[in-house]
Amino acid sequence: xxxxxxxxxxxxxxxxxKSIEETIRFYGELGFEVAWQTENGKCAFLKLQNIVIETxxxxxxxxxxxxxxxxxxIDVSDVDRVYALAQEKGYPVVSNGLETLPFWENGVKFFTxxxxxxxxxxxxxxx
Length: 127
Known about the structure:
single chain; alpha+beta; 2,3-Dihydroxybiphenyl 1,2-Dioxygenase, domain 1; 2 helices; globular
Protein backbone atom coordinates (compact mmCIF):
# COMPACT_ATOMS: atom_id res chain seq x y z
CA UNK A 1 0.00 0.00 0.00
CA UNK A 2 0.99 3.62 -0.51
CA UNK A 3 0.39 6.62 1.74
CA UNK A 4 -1.74 8.29 -0.95
CA UNK A 5 -4.36 5.56 -0.51
CA UNK A 6 -5.15 6.92 2.97
CA UNK A 7 -5.19 10.64 2.10
CA UNK A 8 -8.56 12.38 2.42
CA UNK A 9 -7.39 15.94 1.69
CA UNK A 10 -5.71 18.94 3.25
CA UNK A 11 -6.70 19.18 6.90
CA UNK A 12 -5.13 22.52 7.84
CA UNK A 13 -2.20 24.89 7.52
CA UNK A 14 -0.29 25.69 10.73
CA UNK A 15 0.44 29.36 11.26
CA UNK A 16 2.39 30.62 14.30
CA UNK A 17 1.09 33.99 15.50
CA LYS A 18 2.67 36.87 17.35
CA SER A 19 -0.82 37.81 18.58
CA ILE A 20 -3.69 35.35 18.30
CA GLU A 21 -6.26 38.13 18.71
CA GLU A 22 -4.76 40.11 15.83
CA THR A 23 -4.57 36.97 13.66
CA ILE A 24 -8.20 36.03 14.37
CA ARG A 25 -9.29 39.60 13.63
CA PHE A 26 -7.37 39.74 10.32
CA TYR A 27 -8.64 36.39 9.03
CA GLY A 28 -12.12 37.24 10.30
CA GLU A 29 -12.10 40.26 8.00
CA LEU A 30 -11.35 37.84 5.14
CA GLY A 31 -14.39 35.76 6.08
CA PHE A 32 -12.86 33.10 8.34
CA GLU A 33 -14.73 32.09 11.49
CA VAL A 34 -13.36 30.52 14.66
CA ALA A 35 -14.35 26.86 14.34
CA TRP A 36 -12.62 25.72 17.55
CA GLN A 37 -10.41 27.35 20.16
CA THR A 38 -8.52 26.06 23.20
CA GLU A 39 -9.74 27.03 26.64
CA ASN A 40 -6.71 29.28 27.21
CA GLY A 41 -7.40 30.96 23.86
CA LYS A 42 -3.84 30.54 22.59
CA CYS A 43 -4.71 28.13 19.75
CA ALA A 44 -7.58 28.47 17.29
CA PHE A 45 -8.79 26.79 14.13
CA LEU A 46 -10.18 29.30 11.63
CA LYS A 47 -12.41 28.06 8.83
CA LEU A 48 -13.67 29.50 5.55
CA GLN A 49 -15.54 26.96 3.43
CA ASN A 50 -13.07 24.02 3.11
CA ILE A 51 -9.96 26.00 4.16
CA VAL A 52 -8.74 25.57 7.75
CA ILE A 53 -5.90 27.48 9.41
CA GLU A 54 -4.55 26.38 12.77
CA THR A 55 -3.06 29.43 14.43
CA UNK A 56 -1.28 29.42 17.77
CA UNK A 57 0.32 32.23 19.69
CA UNK A 58 4.10 32.08 20.06
CA UNK A 59 4.56 35.78 20.80
CA UNK A 60 7.90 37.29 19.83
CA UNK A 61 9.07 33.87 18.56
CA UNK A 62 6.83 34.17 15.48
CA UNK A 63 8.98 34.26 12.35
CA UNK A 64 7.20 37.34 10.94
CA UNK A 65 8.66 36.84 7.47
CA UNK A 66 7.69 35.27 4.14
CA UNK A 67 7.67 31.50 4.44
CA UNK A 68 6.49 31.66 8.06
CA UNK A 69 3.97 28.82 7.72
CA UNK A 70 4.99 26.14 10.22
CA UNK A 71 3.36 23.05 8.72
CA UNK A 72 0.76 21.60 6.43
CA UNK A 73 -1.49 18.88 7.80
CA ILE A 74 -2.91 16.14 5.63
CA ASP A 75 -6.13 14.45 6.70
CA VAL A 76 -5.81 10.64 6.60
CA SER A 77 -8.22 7.76 7.21
CA ASP A 78 -5.78 5.57 9.20
CA VAL A 79 -2.88 7.45 10.82
CA ASP A 80 -1.44 4.25 12.34
CA ARG A 81 -1.06 2.64 8.91
CA VAL A 82 0.35 5.84 7.40
CA TYR A 83 2.87 6.06 10.25
CA ALA A 84 4.01 2.48 9.57
CA LEU A 85 4.38 3.25 5.85
CA ALA A 86 6.33 6.46 6.57
CA GLN A 87 8.70 4.48 8.79
CA GLU A 88 9.13 1.82 6.09
CA LYS A 89 10.05 4.53 3.59
CA GLY A 90 12.54 6.05 6.04
CA TYR A 91 10.94 9.49 6.23
CA PRO A 92 12.47 11.50 9.10
CA VAL A 93 9.83 11.71 11.84
CA VAL A 94 10.19 14.99 13.75
CA SER A 95 7.31 14.50 16.18
CA ASN A 96 7.49 12.22 19.20
CA GLY A 97 6.16 9.34 17.13
CA LEU A 98 2.39 9.16 17.09
CA GLU A 99 0.91 11.85 19.32
CA THR A 100 -2.57 12.88 20.40
CA LEU A 101 -4.09 16.24 21.29
CA PRO A 102 -7.50 16.99 22.82
CA PHE A 103 -8.57 19.13 19.86
CA TRP A 104 -12.08 19.01 18.41
CA GLU A 105 -14.77 16.77 19.84
CA ASN A 106 -12.82 13.53 20.37
CA GLY A 107 -9.22 14.62 19.86
CA VAL A 108 -6.74 14.03 17.06
CA LYS A 109 -3.89 11.60 16.47
CA PHE A 110 -0.96 12.71 14.32
CA PHE A 111 2.71 12.51 13.46
CA THR A 112 5.01 14.86 11.57
CA UNK A 113 7.78 14.23 9.06
CA UNK A 114 10.37 16.58 7.60
CA UNK A 115 10.27 17.31 3.89
CA UNK A 116 13.25 18.00 1.62
CA UNK A 117 13.06 21.77 2.21
CA UNK A 118 12.85 21.50 6.02
CA UNK A 119 9.07 21.88 5.81
CA UNK A 120 6.96 19.93 8.28
CA UNK A 121 4.25 17.64 6.91
CA UNK A 122 1.75 16.44 9.49
CA UNK A 123 -0.48 13.41 8.96
CA UNK A 124 -3.59 13.83 11.08
CA UNK A 125 -6.69 11.79 11.90
CA UNK A 126 -9.74 12.93 13.85
CA UNK A 127 -10.57 10.43 16.61
